[in-house]
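Example 3.
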Amino acid sequence: MRRHNSAMVLAEVLRRPGLSRAEVAAATGLAKATVSSLVDRLVAARLVDETGPQSATGRGRRGTGLTPSPTGPHGLGVEIGVDYVATCLVDPTGGEHAHRVHPGDNRGRAEGDVLADVARAVSGAHADAAERGVPVGGLGVAVPGLVDGKGIVRAAPNLGWSDVDVAAALGGDLPVLVDNEANLAAVGELAAGQGIRDFVLVSAEIGVGAGVVLDGAVRRGTHGFSGEIGHVCVDAAGPECSCGARGCLERMAGPAAVLADAGVRTRAPLDLALAELVDRLSEGDDRARAAAHRAGTLLGLALAGAVNLLDVPAVVLGGGYARLHPWLAEPVAAELDRRVVAARWSPTRVLASALGARAAVVGAGQAALRAILTDPDTYVRRVTTA
Amino acid sequence: MRRHNSAMVLAEVLRRPGLSRAEVAAATGLAKATVSSLVDRLVAARLVDETGPQSATGRGRRGTGLTPSPTGPHGLGVEIGVDYVATCLVDPTGGEHAHRVHPGDNRGRAEGDVLADVARAVSGAHADAAERGVPVGGLGVAVPGLVDGKGIVRAAPNLGWSDVDVAAALGGDLPVLVDNEANLAAVGELAAGQGIRDFVLVSAEIGVGAGVVLDGAVRRGTHGFSGEIGHVCVDAAGPECSCGARGCLERMAGPAAVLADAGVRTRAPLDLALAELVDRLSEGDDRARAAAHRAGTLLGLALAGAVNLLDVPAVVLGGGYARLHPWLAEPVAAELDRRVVAARWSPTRVLASALGARAAVVGAGQAALRAILTDPDTYVRRVTTA
């Protein structure tokens, strides 16, 4: 009961910062005394700040305004990339801090070595938090692969991983939430708020994945394996993909394919190769532009299938595709217009991710934070009994 | 408030038929007097029956058992097919009655003429209800096309319709709910209950459409245009579809394509041509079997895209595909196995629709019924003030 009420009180403060205890009581229907004692706990755990007397609103007496605390428990976001490990901190108001990227090719390395690097990066992020004088409330970890409902990485082909328990490997006392990088990028995108609550975010790193968002919630599917748009077939007679099938989007229009088509040497980190591609595209290089156009057409074909199936009003290009958005948007939109049956009544917007390459790590931090904000009492008990 | 409580009481009776008023009060947390007066209204409107003293359960006194009334308001389902109009009645316990199919090719006819036929079929269904001595509570209408959130048929290409207000055309005092036939087939499938709450139902009539069901709810999309799997591309270089795009599933593996491939003359009603195809398949006709195998492979390719995106544990073959299930299931399953990245951890079941060709019309009746059962008080007020 206290757990439920505590969540209700905090949700109200997050939704309308500045409310007094009495106003929270009125909004939630809880007794004033109950609200006051819940708020005291939230203040003690630094989830809520008291900001001095509210400005007078004309009626009733002044109360102390309550706001989410920017120095409260932070979500620590981690992204295990194929050629980097990234971390960041997200504060209770949603602000992101201390974004760090540690380059390093993780392909073909022993998973224990990679996880040791990840643990070092996490230690670094804890040091960032300590330096800012803020607590870390939990970890979110983005992984480029299939993550099941229990957080086990069933397969991350580009890392060569199968059945890896990342949460156990990172150990520690904090809750650890592990999810697919595109799902977490979608969480980041939702939090960044381009004002859309229904979309498919397609994210290109070394691999290509998607986050499916309906009614403001990421749909992880029955087993957690949704969003595998990289293995949607765009040409049944196409070349064989690492997954064993033929003509998958990732194989034909993923970053490696675009770079090869454009005549840009693929190398680690991918970021550098993409930067070179963007340079050539900006200069109007014909081969680069033809490669981007071809990739955009195939991406549009796959996205048209998703939009025909789900009727979402927007698709979001994320990760590497976000950087290529200026050259991909037109062919993607053209395919959507050609292939989406309802296009005449509901044209689909083709947006670039607001967070670009940071989406997954920020989304990981947001997800860790959200786990606390939607169940603050569990956090409060954890820190007050520690 | 009464509206909410009335819905709660009826939901409890539907969930656990046989409860007494006191047991409903205990289960809902409402006062016994409140429950009793709500039940009186539900009984007066024939939504609930009193079934005499409950059998003794060993504790407490006996009460009158409450059950959903099979003679209460029925949902009248209508399906406007391309070459038939069908109707049925669905009683408050979910039982279906008086299923009627009126053959007749509706292609190229003026929409007013078709709607006049539909109105006649609806009158016939009302007569069926009158003969049974049961009231009709509302209509559900299944249409093979894009239906927007307001129930306007934006486009039904195989009927040649655009912007048709079916509800207004059918007039009358009853509420009319209009939706895409595949969405309503999915409603029927959910009610028929093969025990799955997450699936994609792909339904083949003249056209091919899908109902996307997640967490037990049909996802209609932002504008109501979801489920257009018939226009998912299965071969970018394929033949042109009526929608203007190339290589759509409907064009390459819809009933017309399968029949042509198999060398069976397409004719109205489609049903007869499919019956001939089924005969040939049963006899082991090579050409027919090759055609079904080819269609199943393409269907599997399109469904693999949907499963990769949504991670649903089952696909359901509906309408014409349900009749071909014995020959489609294997190639569909093979493609799912080949193309779904998570197939190893979550093999997808390939089911035949439990309702077959009746799914859309039964789903239409179920949807009309559900509108009453989820808001019984509105119905009660309607019939008691009439």
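Chain A touches chain B through 47 residues (CB under 8 Å). The radius of gyration of chain A is 23 Å.
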